[in-house]
Amino acid sequence: GAGVSQSPRYKVAKRGQDVALRCDPISGHVSLFWYQQALGQGPEFLTYFQNEAQLDKSGLPSDRFFAERPEGSVSTLKIQRTQQEDSAVYLCASSLGGRGTGGSYEQYFGPGTRLTVT
Amino acid sequence: DQQVKQNSPSLSVQEGRISILNCDYTNSMFDYFLWYKKYPAEGPTFLISISSIKDKNEDGRFTVFLNKSAKHLSLHIVPSQPGDSAVYFCAAIPGSGTYKYIFGTGTRLKVLA
User: What is the pLDDT of residues B31-52, one digit of tens each?
Assistant: First the structure.
């Protein structure tokens, strides 16, 4: 079946613009994660959803970042008033189960959205 | 502070030989560890994992070793193949109650034909 898809693959935004990044997880996957990956670094956790519930948003760097997954499938990461330091690759991952559900911890990643703020 | 460290940014190995990628961690509460492989312009792909109650897990050419007393994790690839050339990330999950996977900074492996 289809893997995790993300759109757009590339986004250039002027400083101060709002952007919305979309993630389509694998169908039936309970857990969905967003990560930010700066150049030369590993992915850094932003937020976690179990179905439609956002159970952890402790990694969101500021209140300009907002994520939602209203129907427990597609998720959107929104960044308001983008700044240059927001330039990074944003990765989405899904997994079949979640903590406490007895499921696997194996995550399936999408290809990422490369955001460049000029 | 970096709770999961991959101190070697790069590694070159001859085809057919063993590749050993290392990972150190500081938090003794981590209870699950994973290795991912990443090709350019793609997302990371899961390779192998290990629970903190084990010290070894093997899957084909890939073996992960966990030394809890040293807070050290390693991935062995035998034999190495040119297609293994990629960036490898180790990741750790703290104890129950959190969903925050913590990744290292990655090691770029180059397997020379």
Answer: 899 999 999 989 999 999 999 9
